[in-house]
């Protein structure tokens, strides 16, 4: 576990006791920060950070360590903790900027992976429901990928992979939401375009089975039975355990159709790629 993560979890009361002892019995309210050493100020920041309601106070102390002792090891520690404090306070832009400053200043540090992870979280933790703009989701994906690729052996890589998959699924969910809206309005071509994006670009997400089913609905509504059957063929090969397969099977067989590849549409090409592996 990195030093930054370990120190972030220290008990505040113990930390404050250490500070009081270091001040030789003086009340901390009576001692100016300029009269304290870097370690004492840093530990005041830890004590504040241990109180979930006071991250802003912690940020102030960590910032003061940097200001008063800019070239010390404590300033280095304080910078990463400042980034963490901003994140805890949900000041994501400040957290991101501080984490980036840490990476620029200490690229080879043992806490560089944690700084990169905090930077990614500053985007990821702002992802809301699928109805919102997806710019932050794209940025979160890029930042999470940086953690995965640059620090594959770090303790943060596994969490970054999980969050990457969830963010990727989030983007697919946005396409599905819009596609379902167009389908409801009977704008079938527009709906097909959205569901196609999911099948072609987000085929590893949980949204793909429904996207294939919705494509069947759209194509049947347009009288394009070859495409509908081909979408069913992909659904039948890859997602038989889902409710979407069962519903698609009923929908197609009710019209005397099969889950079978027909024609040479874009779906037939997807089938050859994902089922037969002809793209390899």
Describe the structure.
Residues 35-231 form the Outer membrane lipoprotein BamD-like domain. This is Outer membrane protein assembly factor BamD. Belongs to the BamD family. Mean pLDDT is 86; it is low at 6-29. Helix 11 (208-221) runs antiparallel to helix 12 (225-238), helix 11 packs parallel to helix 13 (243-253) and helix 12 (225-238) runs antiparallel to helix 13 (243-253). 69% of the residues lie in helices and 0% in strands. The two termini are 40 Å apart. The chain has 280 residues and is mostly helical. It has a domain at 171-280: Tetratricopeptide repeat domain (Serine Threonine Protein Phosphatase 5, Tetratricopeptide repeat), CATH 1.25.40.10. 40% of the residues are buried.
Second rung of CATH, namely the architecture of one domain:
Alpha Horseshoe
Could you report the average pLDDT, rounded to the nearest whole number? 86
Low-confidence parts lasting 5 or more residues at pLDDT below 50? 6-29
Helix content: 55-70%
Proportion in β-strands: under 5%
Q: What is the CATH superfamily of one domain?
A: Tetratricopeptide repeat domain
CATH topology of one domain: Serine Threonine Protein Phosphatase 5, Tetratricopeptide repeat
How would the global form be characterised? elongated
How many helices? The count is 14
Compute the number of strand runs. 0
Order of helices and strands: HHHHHHHHHHHHHH
Instruction: Characterize the largest beta sheet: strand count, sense, and whether it forms a barrel.
Output: none
């Amino acid at each position: 576990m990195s030093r930054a993560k370990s120190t972030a979890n220290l008990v505040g009361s113990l930390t404050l006791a250490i500070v009081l002892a270091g001040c030789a019995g003086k009340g901390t309210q009576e001692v100016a920060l300029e009269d304290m050493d870097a370690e004492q100020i840093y530990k005041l920041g830890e004590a504040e950070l241990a109180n979930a309601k006071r991250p802003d106070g912690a940020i102030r102390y960590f910032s003061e360590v940097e200001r008063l002792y800019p070239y010390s090891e404590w300033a280095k520690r304080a910078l990463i903790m400042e980034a963490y404090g901003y994140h805890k306070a949900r000041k994501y832009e400040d957290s991101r900027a501080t984490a980036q400053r840490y990476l620029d200043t200490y690229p080879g540090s043992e806490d560089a992976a944690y700084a990169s992870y905090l930077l990614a979280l500053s985007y990821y933790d702002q992802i809301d429901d699928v109805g919102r703009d997806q710019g932050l989701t794209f940025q979160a994906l890029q930042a999470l990928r940086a953690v995965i690729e640059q620090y594959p052996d770090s303790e943060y890589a596994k969490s970054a992979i999980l969050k990457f998959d969830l963010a990727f699924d989030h983007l697919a969910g946005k396409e599905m939401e819009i596609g379902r809206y167009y389908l409801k309005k009977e704008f079938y071509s527009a709906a097909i375009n959205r569901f196609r994006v999911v099948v072609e670009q987000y085929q590893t997400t949980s949204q793909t089975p429904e996207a294939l089913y919705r494509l069947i609905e759209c194509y049947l509504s347009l009288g394009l039975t070859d495409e509908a059957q081909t979408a069913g063929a992909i659904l039948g090969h890859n997602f038989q355990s889902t409710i979407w397969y069962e519903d698609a099977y009923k929908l197609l067989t009710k019209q005397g159709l099969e889950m079978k590849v027909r024609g040479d549409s874009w779906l037939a090409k997807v089938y050859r790629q994902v089922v037969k592996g002809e793209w390899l």
